[in-house]
Amino acid sequence: MPWNESTRSPRPIPSAYLPPHLRHQPTFTVTIPTSLARSSSRRGGGGGGRGRGRGFRGGRAPNPPRSYGRSRRNFSDDDPNPYNQKIMPEPPFDISEKFDELEVIDDDPSGVNNINAYDETPVETSGFDVPPPVTSFSEIDFCSGLSDNIKRCQFVKPTPIQRYAIPVAMAGRDLMACAQTGSGKTAAFCFPIITRILRDHHQLKSPTKKIDRNGGGGGFSLKTIMACPLALILAPTRELSCQIHEEAKKFSYKTGVKVVVAYGGAPIVQQFRNLEKGVDILVATPGRLVDMIERAKVSLKNVKYLALDEADRMLDMGFEPQVRKIVQQMEMPPAGVRQTMLFSATFPIEIQRLASDFLSNYIFLAAGKVGSSTDLIAQRVEYVHDADKKNHLLNLLRAQRANGKHALTLVFVETKKGADALQSWLSMKGFPSMAIHGDKVQMERERALKSFRSGLTPILVATDVAARGLDIPHVAHVINFDLPRDIGDYVHRIGRTGRAGKPGLATAFFSDKNAPLAKALVELMQEANQEIPPWLNEYTETSHAYGSGGSRSSRFSGVKFGGHNYRRGADNENYDYSNQFEDGTALESYPSQSSPYSSHDSRADFPTSSRADSFHEGFYGHMLDHRTVVASGWD
Ligand SMILES: Nc1ncnc2c1ncn2[C@@H]1O[C@H](COP(=O)(O)OP(=O)(O)OP(=O)(O)O)[C@@H](O)[C@H]1O
Q1: pTM reported for the whole predicted model
Q2: Which CATH homologous superfamily contains domain 377-556?
Q3: Ligand 1, pocket-test mutation among 185, 343, 494, most atoms within 8 A of CB
């Protein structure tokens, strides 16, 4: 069962749940709010997409169940109203997150996304005959079912990437799209796919055309019981696949479009059963998909729409062979016949070049600067010796709790073992936490995310498995306990906060071993109008331009993220690509890990200039004060 599928069930939550590891610790008390009713009503009972307050306002008054699930009825795959029949107003999507058990710091009392925050984002386009952008959803010829669902989600207007990408995708063009974390890329590829499938369905229903039940119209082949989806969405992690699946189901609610998910770590037989009920859109992780294809349970021969979310990760070393196999060697129609859409917040130049293998006459879009982070996230970098990190973290968490509330805090560490160790230590110290990483069984991963999402366990210690794509409402603070080696990973990690136009806070613990990242970090922070601690600037002198210390995950980890379209300037396929950075330095030449800097003081080096700051100055004022003392463990 996918982790967020369980959120559908109306199982009651114990009113004073304590994680098992905390049950015998008298020092830790969970704050049971007296404001339970206030908390629920404040969210309007129809929280909408993953708790961001996008209930279906208007229509019948909702009466949400006391669960943090969405109603199974709302998301039935066996919808009785196929192919875009007239839809009567329905109750809201009941997918509000519940924070009834804890008082959490809520950055969003209104519950409404602040998409206007992206209004000033510049969008760069390249390619031939780029379809013009729209300014509203009503300008786009969606089917009425999808339009109703967009309203239900309370998406009042499109984000910049949606304004540009949706018309391109609706015109059937291939697309490489880059936009900041949390700015609505999922809808940008889901809306066109759903619309175009509905149009396909209409054509197939027409009396002049005969449905080829062996795969001519999506669904599955009767002869072979082989699922033949019309659209394939690939994502790098199980959790992200589940999330996209939930989103796509929400968008295709009552349209008749069937969305199925396939991912590893969960029983394959159940997933086969889901596929046998019919599938138009298959959301999958590459490994499980290859397995299913090799067992002849899925055929890609009918795929007309292919989307790669986190496309740079999918084409990175870890996934590229599998993705190449899926796209080029498993019967999928070739580029030019199918439509291909690649989306990510980061697109290193070399990955852009590689990606063009999968595309035909594509349009490139960049909302904001490629690989940049949003200035909605206030970024702090603090120098902390490795030996002091745990205490430093504890102090930050204590400071956050100073007003009696918990902030949802995501703590990134480098290793799985490190995640477990830090989580146990935090629990021992009385901080309700769970860990998520690749060595956990899927049920544990799901439980950890669910518990974090709900606010029951407001601290999640994670490896990069949680770095990309996850849209968890109300994450107030991302702490890079261990900085990643790759600046792209940093962008994705901090992007778990400051989403959908809301402000967020990210704190990084920097030590000498992170020196290779300094230059890229400084550039990124400058682009996002963050104030750079002077001591960090000094590290850049020995830090590689745009680089990182080399990454386990990225063969192109040193390639500049802050660039643009690799076709820029040439705007054609004949560009002479040398194996170089834009500044002319060769790939893979990283600086020494050692650093001459050993006696800096981070005190008082805190940014004040980003637009997220006014929020955080008030919200985390206690933390700002705190930061003036916590990083003082210097020689
Ligand atoms: N037009 C819109 N109006 C209001 N909210 C929106 C709109 N589009 C998307 N959202 C919401 O914004 C949030 C972030 O969207 P999404 O997860 O698609 O971002 P993303 O760009 O894919 O992020 P990431 O790069 O981290 O994967 C979601 O909660 C989504 O429901």
Answers
A1: 0.75
A2: P-loop containing nucleotide triphosphate hydrolases (3.40.50.300)
A3: 185
